[in-house]
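Task card 7
Instruction: Convert sequence to structure tokens.
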Amino acid sequence: MKKIALTSMFAGVYAVLVVGLAPISFLPLQVRFADALIPLSIIYGWPAIAGLTIGCAVSNFVAGQVFFGGWTLLDVVGGSFANFIACYIGWKICIKHTRRIIIATTILQSIVISIIVGSYLWYIFGSPEYYNIYIFILPGLPAFWLSILIGSLISIVVLGNVLLTALMKAGLNFKEKL
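Output:
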């Protein structure tokens, strides 16, 4: 019962953060603050993995309807898949964790999210062949990867590690207790 409650809590918090912060949670340049929950899969395991996957599906569907006049199956499935893979990788790598491994793992989680989400957003938006990003000229697909990566590094690596560290120091590491 505790696992179901925790899964529901992760799904709900993720969805509320994404929809509540929709103007910065979507499009090619985004900082999805809800993604700060992704590193919590390291200490919460399957409840976090399932909850953050479901929360992403719900939030991408709802926000698509409310803010963008419709939703795309690719965004609902692709975003959920990205969250699932990133969370699962984080949990598997850090079963026996050290601080150095956790930071490297959250960087890997950011890369996974960036490649998956950046790829399908590039497809959805039908981007031009090249983008000018400040002084750089990048091909379309790598430009999308980079734009998602920047936001993911902020939310997953920086904010996610702060949240993860705070919960671990507070003794809220439920990995062994579940």
